[in-house]
């Protein structure tokens, strides 16, 4: 568990249920709030439980385990090998993921890695090698599964040809840019060409070009919490706006997709999509660091 990310509480509670009193002292107040709004029957996915937990700070594991009904706390991450069917790495710092995931990938355990998978070309190359060798890796933003955007995954026919789109998010491009990217990616599909980030570390203003002819502007501004997950689509025939409201539904659907992957061995979408999304993340960082240069995805290699 890393600073600013309470997924060990919320994702575990979605599968296991939770202790109401213990969850009240969760350091992320929004989590007990949205959990409390759900009826009891919304918790759990048949045949799946969070059974073991490890956190960087041992005291965090004690509290998460109590709040989210996790029976086993381990002293080392590797101690779960041989005890579990799959592993979730719910941290959102891409630079840490290769080393956090290495023991489980090398042990052949299916693994879910929170967004973004990586934030550098070298780490993308490592995960690409692992995936090519048969490692069972899934990584995605929950925004791919939010119900408010699903109608536009199915069809944008009524909008005509998409010419322009915007997505907004708080926090950093490195950690939350992928939320915005994966809001639009299932709608436009593969085929992004280039990225230009003319902003700063605190105020990322990112222009993406897609081969379908659409331009996308993403604003990732550190304190813009009032506009998380706002999507606008502008087409030749009409326009639409959607805002994510039900994060519980998105998280549970994401977890259900991973559990089905563990059972079937079939990814819900090609790993090539994850590779393209990570190229977009990396290109956004590279462009900002190079004074707003237009960075073409073909510059970022996965091999």
Automatic annotation (TrEMBL):
Record domain Gfo/Idh/MocA-like oxidoreductase N-terminal: where: 47-135
Q: SUPFAM superfamilies in the record, alphabetically?
A: NAD(P)-binding Rossmann-fold domains
What's the short name of a Pfam family annotated to this entry?
Answer: GFO_IDH_MocA
- Which N-terminal residues, if any, form the signal peptide? none
Alphabetized GO MF terms: nucleotide binding
Q: Which InterPro entries match?
A: Gfo/Idh/MocA-like_OxRdtase_N, NAD(P)-bd_dom_sf
Superkingdom field: Bacteria
Under which name does UniProt file this protein? Oxidoreductase
Organism, by scientific name, is Paenibacillus psychroresistens
